Amino acid sequence: MTSKKYNFIVLAAMPEEIGNFVKKLNKLQMHKFGDLDVFQGTYINEPNIQLTIAWSGWGKVSAARAVSRLIGIAEQKNNTVDLIIFTGVAGAADPRLSQWDIVISEDLVQHDMDASPLFKKFVIPSLGKEKILCNELIYHWAKDSINLTKNKDKIGEFGKVFSGLIATGDRFISDKETLKSIKDQLPNLLAVEMEGASVAQVATQEGIPWLVLRVISDSANESADQSFVDFINTYNNSSFSLIEILLNNLKTFPI
Ligand code: ADE
What we know:
The protein is α/β, with parallel strands linked by helices. The chain has a single domain (6-249), classed as Rossmann fold, CATH 3.40.50.1580. The chain is 29% helix and 30% strand. The protein has 6 helices and 10 strands; from the N terminus they run ββββαβββαβαβαβαα. The longest helix is centred in the middle third of the chain and has 17 residues, at 136-152. The model has no long low-confidence stretch (mean pLDDT 96). Bound molecules: adenine (ADE). Adenine (ADE) is lined by residues 89-91, 172-174, 192-194, 217-218, 220, 224, 228.
């Protein structure tokens, strides 16, 4: 058990992407803000970790709204937030990736951001850059924690661990042509989803470290919708265990 106090936010778009977390919280408190339910408590294995947890709904606006609200709640009583984790499923944008593979974002781009000709395509005007870079220390901590745990035990159904570029946009990608047109512009792209870069933008603007952690549900092709629906129901039973790998490795938390 650690003596420092930690204040983490865990957010996903859908309840299935966070899973069965309620029984893992002590001193559970619930708050309601419009249609947003927020759960707060201390993690059963590490009482010094306060967790503020919610699901936002799909898309960049819902995710930005939820994370802004969660930061306000988690920071009550002058507690600064140590880390925002956004988790959930993603479509594979690289043929090496399969269902259940884990993707840790090194950087994120909003593939539907285009303020040209005033700004180069993909540049987020309020950040002045196209790619939102992770915090290197957090990124390595997450990657090492997952790889170490994976080498020791079988971590459920989870597959290989990848890290690299994730693209976010308000579009569920379900055809090869759309995926190709995004990939042609972002050649190292690993995965596509609909919230991560919006949360990373808010976190960056608020000066809070963030981590986007995704699991592949589909291949962003013509069968993406069916794969997604089939996967998400099963994933509900495993999603929180991915978060717990991190929560159980606080002794090497870098900040
Ligand atoms: N999340 C999971 N699969 C996705 C896809 N194919 N497109 C966008 N977001 C996703």
